[in-house]
Structure formats: structure tokens, C-alpha cells
Amino acid sequence: MSGETDKKQVTATLVGEWAALDALLGGLSAEQWAAPTCLPGWRVTDVVAHLIGTEAMLAGDPTPETGVDVRALPHVRNDIGAFNEQWVTALRYEEPAAMLARFRDVTVRRTAALEAMSEEEFAAPSWTPAGQATYARFMRIRVYDCWMHEQDIRAALDIPGHEAGPAPEAALEEASHALGLIVGKRAAAPDGSTVLVDLVGPVHRALTVKVDGRAHLVPATDDPPTAALRLTSSLFLRLCGGRPAPDPAVDLSGDRELARRVLDELAFTI
Asked: Where is the signal peptide (predicted)?
């Protein structure tokens, strides 16, 4: 995507991701809706409740009252987690057909709202889960979140798919914003070093981080990096999302100790 204010492209990618989720959910059995996912305490239906809740909030719907102290749950760590759990708790016993109808209703309303927004409104300052930014950035994060949760559902049910295309590309772009923090602060890469994250598909990227007083993404060069990690884009995004990945297939080269530190610190969201 060419910029945060590219309303047409960001909106089309988000709406396309909702369509992909709709198609996936529409083919699930009741048993599959009840299957546990890798996210603590959440089944497939709970993941969908979370997606419904966030879009409902953006549509102006009130947060449901449940009478449950969601902050007492061990996997609730902050205000965002508590908000998510309010919706999960409220919709815990909804039937799959009702959940799918709710998802379709809120995404239809959100699609209409996004399409009606002006470029200025889309580019306006806004709170986002990553801090104060713009509404456009928030919608980019929505693409990342929705696609990651689609993959959570697919992983739980062993239905791989949708690992290439606009939504995973946008999710990768969002995740790449964290690489400077991961390489420079968390992995403590020394000044003057470069780290290459070579993604070999389904989305192909060569992400190079240079440390020169601060760690930041730079254009790819022919110079050999200080350390390199070679892995698939799907695995990279899974690790960035803090999802479990038993025996991850990652090729480390150069300064392998530094490469290992970067690999161990990839998780920047859960």
C-alpha cells in the first residue's frame, strides 16, 4: 500500500478480508465452531465474538454488560483485553448461525461506513491499539488483526489457506513496523550492524534493519548482513503474533547468536 491515507486500497483490503472470513466461517460445522484455538480460553466462536465486538465498537454499538468480572480471568492483561472479553463473554452461548449472522451484519454496516468516509476523515487523528495515530492506521491494524485471527481459526481446524494476497501482504507490512524495536531494543543488535529477515513466500520480502544510532528498516543492499533469518512469511507473521510454532523452520546465518536473539524476540503482539 502506498500510504496511510490510501482509503480505497485499505478499505478494499479490509472488506476483502471480511469476505474471506465469511467464506471460511460459512463452511464450518457446529463442532468446528466449538474447537479450541491457540489463544488462551478462546474457541473458534470466541475469536469470532472478538472480531464482532471490535467492529461493533467502531460502528458505535454499546459494549454489552455481562455481570462477569472479566479482569479476573488469567489471560486478561489490560484494558483492551478486558474489552475483548466483554464481547466474548456476552456471546459465549450464541449458536453458530446467530454468530455468523452477527458477523455479516456488523461487517456490512462497517463496509458502508468506511465507503461513506471522506479522505480527510480517513486520514484524521485517531486512537489506535498502537497508540495515537490516524484512522487509516487503525484500519491497517484491523486488516492485520482480522487476518491473524482468520489464521488462528484455520490453524485450529487444520484448514490452511489465504497465505498470499492483499490481506497477508498488508499484515506483513504492519508487522514490519515493529522490526526496528525488535532488532535494536529487544535483540540489542550493536551499532553498525544489519539484520536481514528474508521471507521466501508465500509473500516474498527482504526486510533489512540497520542500526546506526537507532534501528530502522532500510532498502535492501548487496552488502552481506551481520545476521540473517530465512523463513516463510506465514511463519514470520505467526511468530510476530506470539502464536505457538513447534520446531519452526528458520535458517539462521551470519552472526547466529544475534539472529537467534531476533528470532526469540519476534513476538510483539498476542
From this structure: none
